[in-house]
């Protein structure tokens, strides 16, 4: 845990260790933390980054070093170098007492009080560090320095005695511990299947990197892996912690652009790994160090900092976050006409493929949904007669309204070729009784014909309308021709050239089904409009 620089500082200044300011300097050196100074990762362009944090101190801070660790059974677990007893042993590097784990009460306003020693069994006159627990609370992972070497930390597992609750036993080191590198800051994912930690083990990108290891159903462990994405840098990344819903990973880094020293960052978990790393901004981060971000609920939690206004070297703070209400609005539009499509089913899904909501577009094709920051959303629109449309977009935490339209293409009708003819296959077109007015429910069918003609710009069609055998021949002849012309007019209004369509009325002269006393179903089949591809059409797609 301690750097070579820290050892050198200690060796050259141990005779002066009684001076408080020197203690702070030594602590800064051995942890690699800054002390309210701008380091070379400083970026003056970082503002609030869309985050709005209100920061308050907690009631458990001391003049020593206090760090937040995790939540456990409605309590807050911290580790601190606060003095226990009159003869507390001191860490020779920091000059402060060895750190111990403490259990703290959480008040209704999320302040902390009554720090009690977490476990006498674990108190071995060594530095205890970050701890994490399984959901049932009966297994813990914690870090402590190697006995006799306060510069190097290792990871251990312990089990709670099911009878003597509160007593931890079966303390065993993890198999991937080593005396040549440190393992720090363990954190269990919400499902208890992934253990995150920080380490400077060989193969790291920089100093300390964030790693993970899978915990199998039988309790065995998979291989150690660096976290996906570009989280790890040539410097240090520490203190991994997932959000309550498991969607985000928070971590501290002095390698990503920040305000100086260690800043806290968040990144979104996706199927492809962690993406969209973002600094939590200047309402939480400072030119000092901010580490150990612990979200207790969606918009409140704790973090640790050595900012100058604190009581000790490091102190524990609580935060509340206010967020901008965000929404996506848009229209469903026809690809060919640009006109809005009412009554379209629009579904919104998030980064993980979970459905957020589903609505029907209104009479103007409009829709809207509430959205969250740092998500990759997909809008899916479905309407009869149209191909399904998709639009993907990312959210930030600064934009109030995202404008996203979804464009739908009409499904083309099928072109069928037989020995006798080539024709466009469609459902029957319906007209009002004794009229050439096309019924609204037939516009979907005609739109498919329109799409086919658009995709085959050289195609010409004969539009042949037929009636049933009710009524006299001359009337049916006039009605069928009027219906053929009405069909041409509809397609021409959508942009199909009139010289590509030849309307013809056949009345009752060419029934599909020959019958004298026809059933209603037979009459319906005989009333039809056919689209016959003309021989001079040079190409069919």
UniProtKB/TrEMBL annotation:
<keyword id="KW-0966">Cell projection</keyword>
<dbReference type="Pfam" id="PF07676">
    <property type="entry name" value="PD40"/>
</dbReference>
<dbReference type="InterPro" id="IPR006664">
    <property type="entry name" value="OMP_bac"/>
</dbReference>
<dbReference type="InterPro" id="IPR006665">
    <property type="entry name" value="OmpA-like"/>
</dbReference>
<keyword id="KW-0472">Membrane</keyword>
<dbReference type="InterPro" id="IPR036737">
    <property type="entry name" value="OmpA-like_sf"/>
</dbReference>
<keyword id="KW-0969">Cilium</keyword>
<dbReference type="InterPro" id="IPR008969">
    <property type="entry name" value="CarboxyPept-like_regulatory"/>
</dbReference>
<dbReference type="InterPro" id="IPR050330">
    <property type="entry name" value="Bact_OuterMem_StrucFunc"/>
</dbReference>
<dbReference type="Pfam" id="PF13620">
    <property type="entry name" value="CarboxypepD_reg"/>
</dbReference>
<feature type="domain" description="OmpA-like">
    <location>
        <begin position="418"/>
        <end position="537"/>
    </location>
</feature>
<keyword id="KW-0282">Flagellum</keyword>
<dbReference type="InterPro" id="IPR011659">
    <property type="entry name" value="WD40"/>
</dbReference>
<protein>
    <submittedName>
        <fullName>Flagellar motor protein MotB</fullName>
    </submittedName>
</protein>
<dbReference type="GO" id="GO:0009279">
    <property type="term" value="C:cell outer membrane"/>
</dbReference>
<dbReference type="InterPro" id="IPR011042">
    <property type="entry name" value="6-blade_b-propeller_TolB-like"/>
</dbReference>
<keyword id="KW-0998">Cell outer membrane</keyword>
<dbReference type="Pfam" id="PF00691">
    <property type="entry name" value="OmpA"/>
</dbReference>
